[in-house]
Structure formats: C-alpha cells, structure tokens
Amino acid sequence: MKDPIFLDNAATTRTDPEVVEEMKPWFDERYGSPATLYAMGAEAKQAIEEARQRLADLIGADVKEIYFTSGATEANNWAIKGTAEALASKGKHIITTNAEHHALLMPCRHLEKNGWEVTYLPVDGEGLVTPEAVADAIRDDTVLVTMAHGNHEIGTIQPIAAIGAVTRERGVTFHVNAAQTVGHVPVDVAELECDLLSLSAHKFYGPKGVGALWMRRGVRTTPLLHGGGQERKRRPGTHNVPGIVGLGKAAQLARNRMQSEAKKLVELRDYLIEGIEKGLDDVRLNGSRSERLPNNVNFSIEGIEGESIMLSLSYPTAEGSRPVYVSTGSACVSGTLEPSHILLALGVPVEMAHGSVRLTLSHENTREECDYVLETLFEVVERLRSMSPVYKRGASKCATGNDNDGCDCEAAG
Ligand SMILES: *Cc1c(COP(=O)(O)O)cnc(C)c1O
Which fold has domain 5-9+258-391? Predict the structure, then answer.
C-alpha cells in the first residue's frame, strides 16, 4: 500500500518530529519526578515550567493561570463541573449551544441529570450563535456559558470576543473549548474576554494525552480530581513530563509558524471546496464560508452514505493507489450510524446528514495530494451513486439549500 493521505487532522495530527525529539530524553534519561527535590526532579520541574511559559506566550496568558491536564476532555469536564459545583449556591443554570463536541456536551448532560438546568442555544444554518441570543438566555441563576471556539466538525468559528463581552458585563463565568483553534488561528485569552479555556496538544502537532485548562485568576472552580498537591494543589497526579514538554514545543512551533501555515491551509481548503463544488452535482458545503477554520472542509453529498465514501477512500482496491483518510463527522460518533447532531443542528436534512464527509488538512498536505483526493473522490461518488437506489441527479436542489437563488421550491414540488 502506498503512502496514505491523511485528511483527518481535526481528529488528531501527526506529532511534529521536532516535538518528538524534544520529548525523548524525558522518557529514559531524565525521568525524575518533578515533585522531588534532587537534581533529576528539579530539572523535570524546570522543563515543565518552560513548557508552561511557551504555552502562556501562545495564548497571551499569565503562566500562573495555566493548569496541565490529560487533554481537552478533562479540561472541559473540570471547567464545566468545577464551575457548576463551586457556584451551586448562586444558581444552577448553564448555557451552551446545540452543536457542541461530546467532550463539552456530555459534562453538561451529566449536570442536567443532577439538578442543573441547561439551555442549548440553537445555532443558525452556518453553525453560529449571536451575542444577543446569549444575552437573552442569561438569567439571574445563570452561572456558566460554555461553547467551542472553532467547531471540530463544520469548522465554524464563533464570535467569542463579542459573547465574552456579554458574559463579562453580566458577571457570568465564560468557558471556551479552544481545542480546534489553539495553534491554528490567533487565540488571545485577553481579547476573547473568557474566564476558562480548554486546549489539547494533539490537535496542533503535539502528543496525545496532554492538554491544559487556562483559568483566569480569581475564577471559582472546584477540582475534578483529588490527590497530591501538583499544579498549585488544583490538579493532582504525577506530571506527564514528556507530554507537557511536547505540548510546550508544539506551542513554540505554532507561534512561529501559525501565520504562514494558516495562509497555506486556507488556499488548500478553498481549492478543495471549489473543486468539489465544480466537480460534483447535488452537494452542500456545511458550515460558514467566511467564519471557518483554515483547515476544514465538510460536505453533504446527496444520495450516498458518508461511511461508504470514507471506507472506499481508505481501502482503495486499484493497484498503486493511495489510501485517503477522511472522517464522516466527529470521531466519537462515527462508530455509530446516527447522523451527526451538529449537522442536524444546522438544519441539514437527515438523509443529507448521512452523506457527509469531513476533510481536515495539516500543514504537511500538498496541492498534488488535493488533486489526487478530488479525482479519487469524484470516482468514488460516481460509482456509489450509480449503485444508489435513492439518488436522482438534481432531484432535491432545494432541499440541499445549495441553490437558493432562482430555485423555485414550490414548482419543484
Ligand atoms: C479533540 C477535541 C476534544 C477532545 O480533546 P482530547 O484532548 O482528545 O480529550 C474536545 N473538543 C474538541 C472541539 C476537539 O476537537
């Protein structure tokens, strides 16, 4: 099998070779626990603090406000459950959106089962919520607003700074899940006016299993875990030293590369979007054209299943062809055949939601790879549609929302 083309970078990224190099000595040469006072521990402690500084520099934070975690899932759980518990005597109402990652949705659901009330603000057809909608939903007993900065599935970037201004004015704690944006687009915690921010190293060329929660000084949360005194007594457990060192290196690389990388990704992204819209009938771009992550392409393709496309692309049968790895939505839900709740939240019809593919780029992808992917995708779609009992070319242009101008839905029936 030839080299795969990896277009699933919203799920995870390849750890950068420079990150791997930086991590190596911390496994088997400098393996002391940072909690100890002898030299091998002290140097691990110093490495952690250097990583903390590098991460703080990337997101415009104070080093003392960064807490290392096992990833964005833990950071979200801590931010949401910790805030809810700390402020329970003040109120038990939380606001989020109906298009969130499971790592944010499920902690909210958990609280809902335990006496909290959660408002799920509906997103519009592009996946956006407005600051006005947030303002209208805030009540006297609202203690937390929590949502993603960039949506992992459709790439929509929320107007976080404007929403932050609302929550600040109303005195409500604001948590942002920035797992998809940190390291890819500028994220500055001061500009975003949030109080808590989650991030994950493996989403920006760092290692898996490590992330952080940034917590503004003075914000009230209870700890998620109880144990030793690590992370200023707020997140116990022996530090994942190699992981944290890797996160710090990834943050440093991102700071240097982000601007040029984003420019390249936007070019490739738009090349894929244009290519798909020109090359295939009856497709719908999901998400926003303007407020979009630089690396995200998400299409609903009428008449076929996303799973069939994904499997055909990843197990090509022709001699010498390259596997192409894409996703049919969030990795957490693509194990099931339920249509994505995020696409349904946009108003994508159920049949169209079933036929969705997500292509997410990394800075290592090339124009040649995109050409290969487009050509292969067109072949796969053509073949699957020719076997599809439900697909009729052009039959539901209106339903796809693809061609609203000049499309007379009534006349089309
Ligand atoms: C990947 C991701 C997560 C989970 O991050 P982990 O570090 O893998 O736990 C949460 N939210 C979003 C938006 C993500 O993309």
Answer: Aspartate Aminotransferase, domain 1 (3.90.1150)
